[in-house]
Structure formats: C-alpha cells, structure tokens
Specification:
With 590 residues, the protein is α+β, with helices and mostly antiparallel strands. It has two domains: 2-218, Glutamine Phosphoribosylpyrophosphate, subunit 1, domain 1 (4-Layer Sandwich); 232-379 and 425-500, HUPs (Rossmann fold). The chain contains 23 helices and 17 strands. The strands form three sheets. The chain has a six-stranded antiparallel β-sheet. The chain has a six-stranded antiparallel β-sheet with strand order 4-5-6-7-11-12, with helices on one face. Helix 6 packs antiparallel against helix 16 (465-471), helix 10 (342-352) crosses helix 15 and helix 14 (410-419) packs across helix 15. The longest helix has 27 residues, at 426-452.
Length: 590
C-alpha cells in the first residue's frame, strides 16, 4: 500500500518542476512512511511514497521493466507468485516485489495483460518509447486514483487533495455532488465533488499521450449472466474452497497482519478461515461504544474470538473521542463519504497500526452475497411493497434539501439504467449498482482513507475474483431465504462455527452519532447552521430543528450536515483542524 502521483506535460515540454513533485510527495507522505521515490523522463514525472509490505529490501519504487518502462503502484498483487512462474520463461525479474509482475505482463500482452492480475491496485506505467502513460485501477475499485486535465498537463494522484496541493486546480465543490453527498452519503460516477477532478472508475484503464487521454477500457468485476442452478451441498463445498483460497492469498505479507472483527457474518467468516490457516493466534480488533444504546458489538465478537483462539483487542469509542477527533477524521476523507463508521474505523486503525501493518476486513460480503435488506424490497413488484433503491434521503424528508440540489439521484439512476440492460436478474442488477458506486466510492474510500492516515493497509478477501465468480451467479434461493440475506454464507458459517448464531436477525453496524449529537444539540445546531457551507444551502432554523429533534431522519440529516460543514471547512476553504469539534466550528462562526 502506497501513494502514487505524477504529471505528464503536454506540448512536448520537459518534466514538471521539482516544486510540483515535492507538493505531490508531501501531500501523500502519510500513505508511505517507509520511503519515497521519483522518476523523471521526457515530459513525465512520477512520484511514489512507500508503505513496505512485500519485498522489504528490494521493492522500492519506481520499478523498471523491459524497454525502459517505469512503474509506480499502490496496492498488492495477490497472485504474483503464480504470475512469476508463468512469466519466468520470457522475463528476468530484478526484485521480489509483487508489483514487478505488472511490468512483465505489459511487456508480453500490452494492457490486456492487466486482466491476469488478482489483487487491489492503482498504478501508472510510463513507456518512453511509445510516449504513453497508462493508468489502471482494480475491477472492484479497492484502490483509488484521481486525475485532472488542464491546458498544460495531465496529472494524477492517489488522493484529490494531492492534486489540489500542486496548485494545478483550485478546490471548488460541484453542486450536484453536494446533493448526492447529503442524501446518499457518497458521490457517484467519474466526476468527484471537486470541479475538474475525476476518478478512474473501478476496472478502468486510461492511456495518456502528450497530456491527453487517448484510450479508455474497463474490466468488469462481476461476471455477466443470470444465476446458474446450483446444488446446495456442492455449493457449500465450493464456497469453502473459494473462501480459503482468497483468505490464503490475502495473507501474503512480509509484515505482521491482523483482522477488523465485528459481530457480523463477514468478518467472522474471515476469522474462521484465518484460524484454519495460521498456527499462531489471529490478532483481532473490535470497536465498542460503552454507555450508549447501540447493540454491543464487542461481546459477540469476543465470544467468537475465544472460539477461534484469537487475541482480541477492544477499542472503546466514546463521545469524548467523537468531539475530539471528528475534525481530524473528516480531514482525512478528502473524497467525502459521510458514513458514520469513519469514526470507529479511524480509531481502530490508529490502535491497530501500533501492532501490525496489514488488517483484513469484511467489506464486500453484503454486496456479493446479498446481505442488505433493501435487496428484498427492490426485487418485489410495487404492489407487494417493492420500491426503487434509495428513493429519498434524510434532508428531503426533513424539508432541508433546496431545489437547486434536487437532481441528487441522477448518478444512481444512470447506473441503474445502464446495468439494467445486462443479462442479469433483478437481484443481480441491484447488487451490481452497489458494486459500481456505493462500494468503491463510499465504503472503500472510508476504508482507504481511515487506514492510510495511519500507514495501515486494509485488505478485503471477500472482494476477490474467485469469490465474485462463485457468489454473483448463485441462484436467488442461496442468497435470500426466509427474510434473511447471505443464506449460503450463513449456512457455511453455521457449519464451521455454530456458536456464531449465523441465522440470527441482522442487527447492522450502528455508531451512536445520533446520541452524541443530541447531547450537545444546543451548542452544535447554531454552530453548524452558521457555517458558510451550510448557510449557503439550508435554512438556519431548519438546521437547528434537525439537531434538536429525536427523530431518526432528523438526526441522520444533522450528522450529514455536520460532516459536510467540517469537510468543506478543510477541503474547500483550506482550514487545518486546530482543535476539537466545537473549536473548529466556532472559529468559523466568529
């Protein structure tokens, strides 16, 4: 896991200035505390900051391949051992780095070779002979890459804030994306919330020449085709093979690793696999919220940790932590996701980084095995209670959303319409829509930014082609049954860990932000209402009412407005967090 960035100057002019390269490196230094590297040739500059996970001695980047190609990469190639064996007859490897295989795949197959990669990655490869810069992102979008095109250059980076740090582009919020963020908690598609900054989409490859994009291609994460008939007994055996295979390769590391463990099905399944694969106890971390009304994640997680002999760490998250660290946390989320789980995720990562450099996480299980309750509603006809996905949001329900932000659903509707043309069932389409927007631009941004702020790598064994090819085309009866999602995964866990109570009703992961906000509503409401970003879009009286209400949709709206005020303060107005939540908000109001 690393930070990468670069600039290709247009018009045949020389490389970017050292000042621009320094700005990129400094902005990404938290992603790579173990070293930095730089490459300059012709009109291309590449920058790399390294978090050393595999090949600690010879894996520094840039890496160089045949025909003088140069590579900077962020991520892990889990099948690099197998790829090396396949490529040895044609290639001579200079390092033991997993990422060096990318260079030799490109030399042998061109960009088509990237389809052989199994992993999470975002990389840039310069070919000085062809005079091209190729950028690529993994099919699930686990790793991120952003770019901007100006009259003078094409620039890219692992985080948008690095592009802004160069001065090549000024921070300006896209109005439609503001509505998406407040209603959906994330933003959709290629256009980020920053005007002029785009994402590489999941699985996308771009070819850039003379500072201009000349070619685009996309590798899909999910197989095409409707569900296949499957025998349940055989499906359970195949699921066991797929899970064990994925967790095994996701443990490939030259540094210690652990697990983020909740009381849910997904991380417990990963724990069960890790316990079978490792002789030493798994090191697991769980967040708890003492003194609140939310379900106790720690007690159930601790019970499963004991079953599998894991060493278990409890990270208590309190209201004091919330008010103290929220500005710092939001400052790390430059591509904004207003998921309240950023709070425990950030604090879990801070603790885990003291012991390990890699953690396995359960993201992806709900999307691939159909765990969300909304899937059941989406596949029903309207006369049986079915409804479209995300028909509304808390701000519109509270009367807080201005007409100028009413097009917030356009991005989701575009993805729905595009994916509806594929040969897939209604359930598969609902899952696929989540996999192209909510998962990469919401959940995986949260994971990446919260962990990389502490130099910690997060791995997602359930987001793997072996798992996806198996799970996505399962028949609906092996996904949804008796008002429960993830039926087959639950059945597998019930066999391997009956103590997990795998068929208990899903509680969902909850963070008590509503409780914490309510305790300080009289102070927070006026401060958020007075923030310039909020005052520009919402009635101050309605904002204050949302903070003082005990109704769920009002508290949801209050949280999102609070997040947006802090995000805008840092990432648009450029104000560094210099105290706790109240100090940061009050410094704007004064």
């Amino acid at each position: 896991m690393c930070g990468i960035a670069g600039i290709m100057i247009s018009g045949g002019r020389p490389c970017a200035t050292a000042q621009a390269a320094d700005a990129l490196e400094n902005a990404l230094s938290h992603r790579g505390p173990d070293g930095a590297g730089r490459y300059q040739r012709d009109n291309v500059t590449l920058v790399h900051t390294r978090l050393a996970i595999i090949d600690l001695k010879t894996g520094d980047q840039p890496l160089y391949g045949p025909e003088s190609t140069a590579l900077v990469a962020n991520g892990e190639i889990y099948n690099h051992v197998e790829l090396r064996q396949d490529l040895l007859s044609d290639a001579s490897f200079a390092t033991n780095s997993d990422c060096e295989t990318i260079l030799h795949l490109q030399a042998k197959f061109g960009a088509d070779g990237f389809q052989h990669l199994r992993g999470m990655y975002a990389f840039a490869l310069h070919d000085p002979i062809a005079k091209t810069l190729t950028l690529c992102r993994d099919p699930f979008g686990i790793k991120h890459l952003y770019y901007t095109e100006t009259e003078d250059c094409f620039a890219f980076a692992s985080e948008p804030q690095a592009l802004i740090a160069t001065g090549l582009i000024a921070p300006q919020a896209e109005r439609r994306a503001i509505g998406e963020l407040l209603q959906l908690q994330f933003t959709t598609g290629s256009q980020t919330i920053f005007h002029g900054i785009h994402r590489l989409l999941p699985g996308e490859t771009l070819v850039v020449k003379d500072g201009r994009i000349t070619h685009r291609a996309v590798q899909a994460a999910l197989p095409i085709g409707r569900p296949l008939p499957r025998d349940e007994t055989k499906a359970l055996r195949d699921l066991d093979l797929a899970l064990m295979d994925s967790v095994k390769v996701h443990q490939r590391s030259d540094v210690p690793f652990g697990l983020f463990l909740s009381s849910g099905i997904d991380s417990t399944a990963i724990l069960a696999c890790m316990a079978r694969l490792n002789d030493s106890p798994v090191l697991a971390y769980t967040a708890s919220f003492p003194g609140t009304k939310v379900p106790d994640e720690f007690a159930a997680a601790h019970r499963m940790a004991a079953v599998f002999g894991a060493s278990h760490v409890n990270v208590e998250v309190t209201s004091a932590d919330f008010f103290r660290y929220l500005p710092e946390i939001v400052a790390a989320i430059d591509d904004p996701t207003a998921d309240y789980a950023i709070v425990p995720t950030y604090l879990l990562a801070r603790q885990a980084a003291k012991d390990v450099k890699v953690v396995l996480c359960g993201e992806g299980g709900d999307e691939l095995f159909a765990g969300y309750s909304r899937y059941r509603r989406q596949i029903l006809p309207w006369w049986l209670g079915g409804r479209r996905r995300r028909p509304s949001g808390p701000l519109s329900e509270c009367g807080l959303l201005p007409p100028s932000l009413s097009d917030w659903r356009t991005g989701i509707a575009t993805a729905e319409a595009r994916l509806a043309h594929d040969d897939r069932s209604a359930l598969q389409i609902a899952q696929a829509v989540d996999c192209v927007d909510y998962l990469p631009h919401g959940l995986l941004v949260k994971l990446d930014r919260c962990l990389m702020a502490h130099g910690l790598e997060g791995r997602t064994p359930l987001l793997d082609p072996v798992i996806a090819n198996f799970a996505f085309r399962l028949p609906q009866r092996l996904k949804l049954r008796k008002r429960r999602g993830k039926y087959l995964l639950r059945k597998w866990l019930n066999q391997h860990a009956p103590q997990a109570d795998a068929f208990a009703r899903k509680k969902g992961f909850t963070v008590p932000v509503g409780e914490w906000i309510s305790r300080e509503a009289d102070r927070l409401g006026p401060l958020v209402a007075a923030d310039p970003a909020i005052a520009a879009i919402c009635s101050p009286d309605l904002v204050k009412r949302a903070f003082c209400s005990q109704e769920k949709h009002h508290l949801d709206a209050a949280w999102r407005l609070l997040f947006y005020a802090l995000w805008h303060r840092r990432h648009i107005r450029g104000l560094i967090p210099d105290g706790d939540l109240f100090h940061c908000l009050d410094s704007v109001a004064r």
